[in-house]
Amino acid sequence: MNRSSILMIAGLACGLTTGCQKKPQSAAGPPPAVPVTVAQATHENAPRALTVVGAVEASAIVEVKSQIPGQLLKVHFTEGQDVREGQLMFTIDPAPYEEALRQAQAAVERDRALIVQAQAAMERDIVQAKSAEADAARYAALLKAKVVSAQQELQYRTAAESQKEAVRADRAAIESARGSLKVNEAAVSQARLNLGYSRISAPISGRTGNLLVQAGNLVKVNDVALVVINRIVPAFVTFSVPERHLDDIRRRNALHRLAVDATPRGDGGPKATGWLSVVDNTVDPQTGSIKLKATFDNPKAALWPGQFVDVLLMLDSNASATMVPSEAVQAGQQGPFVYVVKQDQTVEPRPVSPGRTIGGKSVIESGINPGETVVTDGQMLLYPGARIMVAPAQKSASVR
């Protein structure tokens, strides 16, 4: 290689090296801000309440049964109809019981006649006994005077004793007739009672169910129910709460009646308001819960026996708490947390203890103070220290 070629290659290499050294380097900038919506944690009135599922029960359930055997002659109501207490519902053939009543009444009249007859006989025997006793006394005196024989005196004395025994027998007959009279008077009362049982009236006011025995059938004493009546005005709602709330419920219920709201599940029916009326006397050891019962006036029969309802037991209507929109609370591996916005527009995840939800907002029992700003939307792109850009906030739900 000649000298000129060597100089050309060296110059080219130097030019390439100089060009590389003068090339500008591009520096990476900060990551872009994440658009999010935010809201402030507020200090609001948050009524303390327990939300559970309950079941509606009739305030009284009565199975209408027959108290006498016989043929069911007539049904005086329509299935599913409301009935009033004392309203006639069924008629059982009264003929056998009318005849039994007549026989019992005839036996009473016979006993009364026997008593009158026995009393008349006793009065006659009393008179004869007095006469015989006088004769016996006179002959006893004559015997002492040796005017009559001892045999004659014995005859009159025996007659007097016989009359006394006749009087005692008459008294016994009267007592026997009176005893028989009481028995037959009781038979009259029973027959009259059985005759009354042939007309079956509603024992309570309420709604009738399906007719279980049709007219014409023979019924037995206390056999199958003829119909079932449910009293639904008022109605009960039973529900269970964890036993940890028992002391609080008992204490507050002793101070004032606790309100209970019930809303039919699924159909969005009207809310009914009642009052806690019964706290069960034992905790269920299997579930660790206590059964409660609330009473509802239910004037329009909106609550129906067997229906499931959402129950809200109000413990304290004046309680206040720190609240944030429910969408701000996220589920993490270490538990619930929220992203809190710091002054430099970065975020930090903070563990919280959420409580109940009221009208789209969650009660935060610990972890957040009123006035702090939390992220309500856009959390999927956030990480600790991420910078944010606040977008227009959506309208949050208000507390009911």
Largest sheet: 6 strands, mixed
Structural class: alpha+beta
Unreliable runs, pLDDT <50, ≥5 residues? 1-10, 12-24, 396-400
Helix content: 25-40%
Question: What's the count of strands?
Answer: 22
Number of helical regions? 4
* Element-level helix/strand string: HEEEEEEHHEEEEHEEEEEEEEEEEE
Share in β-strands = 35-45%
What overall geometry do the principal axes of the alpha carbons give?
elongated
Describe the protein in words.
- With 400 residues, the protein is of the alpha+beta class.
- Among the domains are: 34-44 and 320-390, conserved putative lor/sdh protein from methanococcus maripaludis s2 fold (Beta Barrel); 51-56 and 231-316, Beta Barrel (Elongation Factor Tu (Ef-tu), domain 3); 96-197.
- It has four helices and 22 strands.
- The protein has helices at residues 3-22, 95-144, 150-197, 246-255; strands at residues 34-40, 42-45, 48-64, 70-75, 82-83, 88-92, 199-201, 206-208, 218-219, 227-242, 259-264, 272-284, 289-296, 308-316, 320-325, 330-332, 335-341, 347-351, 353-358, 361-366, 373-377, 388-390.
- Strands 1, 16, 17, 18, 21 and 22 form a six-stranded mixed sheet that branches.
- Helix 2 (95-144) packs antiparallel against helix 3.
- The two termini are 95 Å apart.
Give the arrangement of secondary structure elements.
Elements: H1 3-22, E1 34-40, E2 42-45, E3 48-64, E4 70-75, E5 82-83, E6 88-92, H2 95-144, H3 150-197, E7 199-201, E8 206-208, E9 218-219, E10 227-242, H4 246-255, E11 259-264, E12 272-284, E13 289-296, E14 308-316, E15 320-325, E16 330-332, E17 335-341, E18 347-351, E19 353-358, E20 361-366, E21 373-377, E22 388-390
Helix pairs in contact: 2-3
